[in-house]
Amino acid sequence: MRLVSIPPPVGPQFGGGAQPPYHPHQAAPGPAPYFPYGPRPPAAVNGVAIAALVFGILCFLPAVGLVLGVVALLQIKRRGERGKGMAVAGVTLSSLGLALWTVALVTGGVTAFWEGFRDGSRSGSVLALRKGDCFTSPGGLEGWTSTARKVPCADEHDGEVFALVTVPGTDFPGDDSLTELSEDRCYERQSAYVMDGWSLPEEIGVYYFAPSEGSWSFGDRSVTCVLGREDGTRFSGSLRSDATTLDAHQLAYLEAAEVLNAALDELPESGYFDDDVSDDREWAGQVEEAVAEQVRLLRAHAWPAGVREPVDELVAGLGEARVAWGRAAGTADPDAYWLREEEAWEATDPSLSITVREALGLATSPPAYDEEVEREPEAGEMEV
């Protein structure tokens, strides 16, 4: 997307009016008679002073108004023109405006102005999209685009905005850096918008709109994170599942489950069986702590009558999983460790949460993941 700045039209050139030349009366031969002088015509008003006053009042180009005011004062002194009061007023108002602009730059007022510009931009622009908006785009979610028409999420749409990420810095970071930042930040924020990962259809993927170099120069600093179908077809209905769509009990359960999901997602990257299991043992200890925290959160919440029994059964199963992860964390021998970790994975059975989910009205089908991944399950695969 590219924003084009249309420079303001060049205004009239303001210049001082020239005084008519003064011709003294020529004396006639002989005695000089006395001729009374008539009134001297008034001096012209300096045009630059008028311009300085106008720019000072409008306050949109304070530096220009300040310069014009100084020029006008010099011209008035040299030419004997009128308009000193207007020039002084222009200098004063422009100085005040320049001070206000400086404060705005320091305190972030320009950013607020840009956000206001985005809010006021036409409904067909990508810049107008906000978290929770659903939209259609002429080219779908592929390639370059600057247009997006907001539609109700109940209607068919190409994408749903789930986060806006502010890009730090003042210089354009380049396309490669923006791509890396956009992918990292958008994936990080997905779980906050779709807290129930089980409810997200398998064909939904993450997309984003990043600032172009042109829009950056005009203050665009936001990456727009979007959910859409990977096959490029449209879908209907919102994918959102957070505090705005969930009840208090659903929210409490998902917040507790996310503690364990986040720990499982920190699986050491190697993924290979080797003689050094120090990182794996440390990770297993972190998972043990996460299971204990999940149990604490589940016990602390006041569940409805129909949910208490399934939650108690889940807590009992999590207790066994905690013991299994603790054993893995305490096993130094590599061969024994891998056996302990496998036992811990088996104890962390996602099916334990199905009865609780059913009682709470949440999705009950675990997400499907790539079966070729043996040791690196996705976040949420073993959610209980």
Automatic annotation (TrEMBL):
Q: Where is the composition biased (Acidic residues)?
A: 369-384
The record's keywords, sorted A to Z, are: Membrane, Transmembrane, Transmembrane helix
The answer to whether UniProt assigns keyword Membrane to this entry is yes
Residues of the region (Disordered) are 363-384
Q: Where is the DUF4190 domain?
A: 49-104
Which positions, given as ranges, span the membrane? Answer: 48-74, 86-114
Annotated ranges, domain Septum formation-related = 132-231
The name under which this protein is listed is DUF4190 domain-containing protein
